[in-house]
């Protein structure tokens, strides 16, 4: 025998257990456990957890009572333990040896095997039965006689214990877990707790309540708890249940209240407050020692003497602070007709397997289905279906009632609910009044016969991850200074507008997906001023965003695309901010501003729209800046019908039609824009288009950089206009305009074209490096050209032709690769005080019959290559090739049957056509066709002939754009 007797087995860890007769305390020896174990053990001792017993729902069987009695005796004998580190199978427990850190005592048994026991404070701890020989126990006082407690701890097979424990309910299991380490392990088996948990709460996954108004389902494998089912049981055990048919059932080992109706469960906390207070006074306890009224705790012991059986000591007083209100579980069923007015911090949550919300239905036909009023600061409703189904033929008015109503000074949380309303008036959800500040998340508000969600009268709230769809009117209404926060909602397929803010409604809308609504995705009206950030607004059957009747709003970093009409509409004195959005692939335009609309349109990426990227009309006056407007199937910016606006620092490029159109009395101001790479014109003024074009960079268009026609009279100042395939600036058909201080260079045709009765003014421009002429004026063109520098152009610096009559004053025309000024084809001009110098072919060249007004000009240091070639007996083609048109006498040969379209220079007439019948035609612009090899006879003054087309008198005429007009 060992000393002292084995019956006095000390516990390995501290533990406290109370029998039905009262509390009993054991001595502490205090072995340490891991932090995970400590948390799990704290769970077991504070409120434990509970597993469902077998599927029978009546009280615990007699066997369970016997085990509980036996284990209570063991606890009274001082045997208790806490959980081992982490969850493990109970079948591994009996193979473990005691800690080697303790002193060991040994004795020899009958078989000669050594038996080890751990000495702890004078006691001994027996090894498991499998590691010691079987022996006959003596009844002698000196013999270690196995007691009932010892047998339960060491002798009974694990399978038997596990089977017995499966018949127990949560409170008995928690008591058993305090008996010894072996019981603790088996009583914390995850499968036991899973079955017990699912019989009580019916959920497929553990549900955790980490903080007020927050309930989370977590997969067991993703949980941080060793036994997530037990931990969930522990967190939810304070709840009461609405489960019809269960109200009269009694359970030993369970402290749960059941009710048949929701209202009875809501009333229960008030009824319990008085009873609990009286019980506490009887027991001499302060109210803070007792669990929250109506919120029983899963405790480590039975009820203290003098208290009702369900008023159990709370294991953690903080529980009252963390969860201030009662918790009510609604089990599967259709609850009709109950009028639920919630004015306290109750948590009301559905409980069912599968899709929880679909299994629990609350429905009313009059008044509101659920109403939150003042006092519901931390109330919660989750995982259920709410329906409002009034009789549409009823004479009882219900326009002020809703499926869900949140009133003044209430801030409930509505979570994972399905909300439906068949009312043709009102809304499914109404949040109204000062201090109304709910959290509505993960809800489905769909298929309602009026508005889905209505926020009004200074209400606020946070609305996240909701599905709002297929409602008869707007998905969301916000009005009358309401200011909700709406994030990551899905608002779609409404039979009206997606979100409608009006009558001074406000709000913050972030990352919502708004699409396929019959009218606009987002509408702002009548002083409303929402902030809309990072939303996707697309596939609207009308448009994307519609701001009208003095609407405001900030629309920032949204994606607005694929709408049937304009991506953004702004009208009737509205003044929103449209910033950093992507606006693309619209079936019509990108941004459409009309009817005296305003707005700040900046830093947007606008592309791929079927009509203009931005359209401004009918005296609208927005600010458009820092945008990229490109790859439109139509034009870039279209300003018409007296449109205005400040358009600055945008990049407009690669559009199918004009980069910017300005027409019909419009007067915008365009400054510091880059307008380039278009498939037609850069900036197009027509039909009395006016305005200012200042400091822009306009380049690389297939047509002209700028066109002005039909009465248009813009101011074009300080721009760089270059790389046009049809010239720099084309003024025609009665066009006007002031072109001042521009740089016009490197254009494939003339830097400036003036024709067909147009009369612009050009002052102090630099027109240079053209691949054709500098300025070409023909077909009755006019204009005043003053103080311009015209230089290094391939053809004439200024060509004046065909009945044109411009005025040239104080210009400098120099370094040209042909003549300085050429006047031909019955044109005339006034030339005053110009300087014409260092041009290759000559200074001022006049065709036959031309008599300009010439006064005070300085013509000097020109290279006169034509005169030199003629005097040297060379063919004129040698200096001109077929790209230049030097002015000189040209002839035709009747013997060779040449036409007026063929020109022969005087030296070729003398040499190549000597003896032929020739005639003088006129002094004009041409190159020699004889030298070019286009005649029958080979030129004797040239080498190998170069084939070429007929000589042209003028530079090639510019193409006029055929830009479509869209009103």
SSE order and pairing:
Layout: E1 16-19, E2 22-25, H1 35-46, H2 62-76, E3 103-108, E4 114-120, E5 123-126, H3 148-155, H4 158-165, H5 170-176, H6 181-187, H7 190-201, E6 207-211, E7 214-217, H8 228-236, E8 240-242, E9 258-259, H9 262-283, H10 318-322, E10 327-331, E11 333-336, E12 340-342, E13 347-351, H11 356-359, E14 360-364, E15 370-372, E16 380-382, E17 385-388, E18 404-406, E19 413-415, E20 418-421, E21 427-432, E22 439-441, E23 444-446, E24 451-456, E25 462-464, E26 467-469, E27 476-479, E28 485-487, E29 490-492, E30 499-502, E31 508-510, E32 513-515, E33 522-525, E34 531-533, E35 536-538, E36 545-548, E37 554-556, E38 559-561, E39 568-571, E40 577-579, E41 582-584, E42 591-594, E43 600-602, E44 605-607, E45 614-617, E46 623-625, E47 628-630, E48 637-640, E49 646-648, E50 651-653, E51 660-663, E52 669-671, E53 674-676, E54 683-686, E55 692-694, E56 697-699, E57 706-709, E58 715-717, E59 720-722, E60 729-732, E61 738-740, E62 743-745, E63 752-755, E64 761-763, E65 766-768, E66 775-778, E67 784-786, E68 789-791, E69 798-800, ...
Parallel strand pairs: 8-9, 8-10, 10-13, 11-14, 12-15, 13-16, 14-17, 15-18, 16-19, 17-20, 18-21, 19-22, 20-23, 21-24, 22-25, 23-26, 24-27, 25-28, 26-29, 27-30, 28-31, 29-32, 30-33, 31-34, 32-35, 33-36, 34-37, 35-38, 36-39, 37-40, 38-41, 39-42, 40-43, 41-44, 42-45, 43-46, 44-47, 45-48, 46-49, 47-50, ...
Antiparallel strand pairs: 1-2, 3-4, 4-5, 6-7, 78-79
Structure described in brief:
The protein is an alpha/beta fold.
């Amino acid at each position: 025998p060992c000393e002292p007797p084995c019956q006095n087995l000390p516990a390995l860890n501290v533990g406290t257990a109370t029998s039905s007769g009262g509390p009993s305390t054991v001595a502490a020896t205090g072995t340490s456990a891991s932090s995970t174990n400590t948390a799990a053990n704290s769970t077991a001792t504070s409120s434990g957890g509970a597993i469902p017993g077998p599927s029978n729902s009546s009280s615990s069987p007699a066997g369970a009572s016997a085990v509980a009695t036996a284990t209570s005796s063991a606890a009274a004998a001082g045997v208790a333990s806490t959980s081992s580190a982490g969850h493990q199978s109970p079948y591994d427990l009996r193979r473990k040896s005691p800690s080697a850190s303790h002193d060991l005592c040994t004795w020899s048994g009958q078989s000669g095997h050594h038996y080890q026991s751990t000495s702890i404070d004078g006691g001994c701890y027996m090894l498991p039965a499998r590691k010691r020989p079987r022996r006959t126990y003596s009844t002698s006082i000196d013999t270690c006689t196995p007691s009932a407690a010892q047998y339960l701890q060491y002798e009974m097979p694990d399978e038997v214990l596990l089977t017995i424990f499966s018949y127990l309910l949560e409170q008995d299991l928690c008591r058993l877990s305090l008996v010894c380490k072996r019981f603790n392990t088996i009583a914390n088996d995850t499968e036991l707790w899973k079955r017990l948990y699912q019989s009580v709460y019916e959920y497929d996954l553990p549900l955790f309540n980490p903080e007020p108004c927050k309930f989370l389902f977590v997969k067991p494998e993703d949980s941080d708890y060793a036994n997530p089912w037990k931990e969930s049981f522990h967190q939810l055990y304070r709840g009461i249940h609405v489960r019809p048919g269960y109200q009269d059932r009694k359970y030993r080992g369970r402290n749960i209240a059941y009710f048949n109706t929701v209202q009875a469960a809501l009333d229960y906390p008030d009824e319990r407050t008085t009873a609990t207070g009286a019980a506490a006074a009887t027991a001499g306890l302060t109210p803070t020692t007792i669990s929250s009224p109506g919120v029983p705790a899963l405790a480590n012991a039975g009820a203290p003497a003098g208290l009702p059986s369900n008023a159990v000591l709370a294991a953690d007083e903080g529980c009252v602070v963390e969860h201030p209100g009662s918790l009510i579980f609604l089990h599967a069923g259709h609850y009709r007709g109950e009028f639920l007015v919630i004015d306290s911090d109750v948590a009301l949550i559905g409980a069912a397997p599968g899709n929880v919300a679909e299994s629990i239905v609350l429905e009313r036909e009059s008044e509101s289905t659920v109403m939150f009023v003042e006092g519901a600061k931390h109330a919660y409703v989750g995982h259920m279906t709410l329906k409002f189904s009034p009789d549409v033929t009823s004479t009882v008015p219900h326009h002020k009632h809703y499926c869900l109503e949140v009133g003044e000074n209430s801030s409930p949380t509505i979570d994972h609910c399905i909300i439906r309303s068949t009312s043709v008036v009102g809304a499914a959800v109404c949040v109204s009044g000062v201090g109304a500040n709910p959290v509505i998340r993960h809800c489905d508000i769909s298929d309602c016969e009026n508005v889905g969600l209505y926020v009004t009268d200074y209400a606020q709230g946070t609305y996240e991850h909701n599905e709002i769809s297929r409602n008869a009117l707007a998905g969301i209404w916000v009005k009358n200074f309401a200011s909700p926060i709406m994030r990551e909602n899905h608002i779609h397929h409404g039979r009206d507008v997606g979100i409608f803010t009006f009558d001074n409604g406000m709000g913050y809308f972030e990352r919502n997906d708004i699409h396929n609504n019959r009218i606009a995705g987002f509408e702002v009206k009548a002083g409303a001023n929402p902030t809309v950030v990072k939303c996707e607004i697309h596939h609207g059957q009308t448009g994307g965003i519609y701001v009208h009747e003095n609407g405001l709003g900030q629309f920032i970093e949204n994606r607005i695309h694929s709408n049937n009409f304009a991506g953004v509409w702004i009208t009737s004195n509205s003044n929103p901010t449209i910033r950093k959005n992507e606006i693309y692939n619209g079936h019509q335009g990108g941004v459409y501003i009309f009817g005296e609309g305003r707005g700040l349109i900046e830093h947007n990426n606008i592309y791929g729209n079927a009509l203009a990227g931005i359209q401004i009309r009918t005296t609208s006056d927005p600010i458009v800046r820092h945008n990229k407007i490109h790859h439109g199937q139509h034009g870039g910016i279209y300003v018409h019908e007296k449109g205005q606006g400040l358009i600055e620092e945008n990049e407009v490029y690669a559009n199918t039609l004009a980069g910017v159109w300005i027409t019909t009395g419009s007067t915008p101001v365009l400054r510091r824009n880059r307008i380039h790479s278009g498939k037609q014109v850069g900036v197009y003024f027509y039909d009395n288009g006016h305005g200012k074009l200042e400091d822009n960079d306009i380049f690389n268009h297939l047509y002209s950089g700028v066109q002005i026609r039909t009465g248009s009279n813009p101011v074009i100042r300080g721009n760089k206009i270059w790389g046009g395939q049809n010239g720099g600036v084309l003024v025609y058909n009665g066009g006007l305009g002031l072109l001042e201080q521009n740089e016009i260079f490197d254009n494939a045709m003339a830097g400036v074209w003036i024709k067909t009765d147009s009369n612009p003014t050009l002052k102090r421009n630099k027109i240079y490096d053209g691949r054709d002429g500098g300025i070409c004026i023909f077909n009755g063109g006019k204009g005043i050209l003053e103080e311009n520098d015209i230089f290094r152009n391939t053809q004439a610096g200024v060509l004046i032709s065909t009945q044109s009559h411009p005025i040239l004053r104080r210009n400098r025309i120099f370094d040209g690769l042909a003549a300085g000024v050429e006047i031909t084809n019955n044109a005339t001009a006034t030339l005053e005080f110009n300087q014409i110098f260092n041009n290759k072919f000559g200074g001022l060249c006049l065709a036959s019959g031309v008599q300009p007004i010439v006064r005070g000009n300085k013509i000097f240091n020109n290279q006169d290559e034509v005169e030199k070639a003629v005097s040297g007996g060379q063919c004129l083609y040698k200096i001109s090739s077929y790209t230049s048109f030097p002015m000189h006498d040209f002839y035709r040969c009747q013997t060779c049957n040449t036409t007026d379209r063929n020109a022969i220079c005087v030296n070729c007439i003398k040499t190549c056509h000597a003896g032929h019948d020739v005639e003088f035609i006129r002094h004009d612009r041409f190159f020699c066709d004889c030298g070019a090899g286009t005649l029958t006879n080979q030129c004797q003054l040239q080498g190998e002939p170069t084939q070429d087309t007929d000589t042209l008198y003028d530079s090639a005429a510019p193409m006029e754009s055929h830009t479509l007009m869209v009103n």
